[in-house]
Design a protein that fits this description.
This protein is α/β, with parallel strands linked by helices and about 250 residues long. The chain is built from seven helices and twelve strands. It has two domains: about 140 residues, Rossmann fold (3-Layer(aba) Sandwich); about 110 residues, Dihydrodipicolinate Reductase, domain 2 (2-Layer Sandwich), CATH 3.30.360.10. Bound molecules: NADPH dihydro-nicotinamide-adenine-dinucleotide phosphate and ligand LZUJQKHR.
């Protein structure tokens, strides 16, 4: 049984996870953290992790970049492992999370779905063949109108995965408006679309001479992320300091 503190419990993802954990005999949400306590969750809700005095094994974080620094400080103070799913984090926050993993177990992933984490590896294989053959690489992501950050954490993770496979030679271009120059062969273009209730779509386009290959992942419900986060929490329970990602969870469950 993993005892979870749900950071951002009253948001969209926090509520989906609350529903999923209710049906899971191996997991329990013992407390939630959110700015307002306006739901009938069946567990106590605190305004910050610092104020929370409930014993737990792991924190799952789907909240806001604005809340990340205080969350990490409190995890360090309480020696609590944390699954970081919040996106839109600054370089400083990413460095702080890395540093924290020297003292507590941290699992960070911009996308908790099995599909995207499988795709991250396939993209590396494709890029190694196609980029040297002159294919240009573009990523287009689409999300719901409520999403605050752009581009998505997943789009950046996909670009990073490709770039790592290519020796980190590529730069990222987020906006071409106002430009009057040809595309740089060593760039990865990243474009964001926002509207309606699109759960999450990511397309990676390899565009060559007279042929195009496209990889596409579509999330049809937030449950794919929620299930991944609960698996990650089970994986992290009892782990000592270290930095993990979803590939570690997938490998452990294979
Ligand atoms: N890694 C992954 O697979 C996924 C990551 N995400 C990411 O997770 C995050 C949350 O997404 P989502 O649930 O859709 O967003 P929501 O805005 O619906 O939920 C976030 C919740 O966190 C609350 N919150 C804001 N500030 C704080 C704070 N200081 N302390 C505690 N709680 C706070 C919000 O309160 P209020 O509404 O009052 O501001 C809200 O209830 C986003 O960054 C999103 O990109 C989302 C889906 C999948
Ligand atoms: O905010 C969302 O909804 C999502 N955010 C994550 C991201 O930024 O990549 C993952 C998923 O696509 C849904």
């Amino acid at each position: 049984m993993v005892r979870i503190i749900m950071h951002g419990c009253n948001g969209h993802m926090g509520q989906v996870i609350t529903g999923i954990v209710k049906e899971d005999k191996d997991a329990e949400i013992v407390a939630g953290i959110d700015l307002v306590d306006n739901r009938d969750n069946g567990y106590p809700v605190f305004k910050s992790l610092k104020d929370c005095d409930v014993e737990a094994d792991v924190v799952i974080d789907f909240a806001s970049a604005k809340a990340e620094d205080a969350l990490i400080d409190a995890c360090l103070e309480k020696k609590l492992p944390v699954v970081v799913c919040t996106t839109g984090l600054s370089e400083e926050q990413l460095a702080k999370i890395r540093e924290a993993s020297r003292e507590v177990a941290v699992l960070k992933s911009a996308n908790m779905s099995l599909g995207v984490n499988t795709l991250l590896k396939l993209l590396q294989d494709a890029a190694k063949v196609l980029a040297p053959a002159g294919f240009d690489m573009e990523i287009v992501e689409k999300h719901h109108k409520h999403k605050l950050d752009a581009p998505s954490g997943t789009a950046i993770a996909m670009a990073d995965s490709i770039n790592e496979a290519m020796g980190n030679e590529y730069t990222y271009t987020y906006d071409r408006s106002g430009r009057r120059q040809e595309r740089d062969p060593k760039e990865i273009g990243i474009s964001a679309v926002r509207g309606g209730n699109i759960v999450g779509e990511h397309e990676v386009i390899f565009a060559g001479l007279d042929e195009v290959i496209e990889f596409k992942h579509t999330a049809y419900s937030k449950a794919v992320f929620a299930k991944g986060a609960v698996s990650a929490a089970k994986f992290l329970k009892g782990k000592g300091p270290g930095y993990y990602d979803m590939s570690d969870v997938i490998e452990a469950n294979a």
